[in-house]
Amino acid sequence: MRLIDNRTGLEVLGRDECLRLLEGQVIGRVAVSDAGQPEIFPVNYVLDGDEIVFRTAPGTKFDSAVRNRPVAFEIDAADATYHAGWSVVVAGHAREVTDEDRLAEIDHLPLRPWAEGEKAHVVAISTERVTGRRIVPVDAGS
Questions:
Q1: Tens-place pLDDT, residues 75-113
Q2: Under 8 Å CB-to-CB from 131, ≥6 apart: which residues?
Q3: Cα 41 from Cα 45, distance rounded (Å)
Q4: What span, in angstroms and rounded, lies between the C-alpha atoms of 131 and 13?
Q5: Inter-CA distances, 90 with 42, 95, 119, 130, 137, Å
Q6: Which residues lie closer than 8 Å to 78 by C-beta, 6 or more apart?
Q7: Taking the CB of the first residue and of the last residue of the chain, which one, N or C, has fewer CB atoms within 10 A?
Q8: Against a cut of 0.70, is the pTM above it?
């Protein structure tokens, strides 16, 4: 049974569906706060259990993770032709992964940086709050 938000007309996705969508994608956007200003960065990632994992070099994304700060992470898909699409947003805390056993596990995941340059740091984002919405296609006949 689909749950429709009466205010927006969008289908509300449950956590399991959101995690399934997160598993099916490889590019997302991580949002952090830097000196009180929002910053958004595209990253390639994997969902490993209940954590979003990506590699990064030192910089704003990494600095946010080291401080174990709240972050947001978003993925989406859109079809402009059919006016269809969905979005999943995760709110959680970012942290640097330093445990050697955990790093060894992550090394076996399909997670390789797309951008050039060394990405020596691994960041994990907890999935404390996961929300999703899907545009409900409008009947062509209505």
A1: 999 988 888 999 999 999 999 999 999 999 999 999 988
A2: 12, 13, 18, 88, 89
A3: 12
A4: 7
A5: 14, 15, 23, 5, 24
A6: 84, 85
A7: N
A8: yes
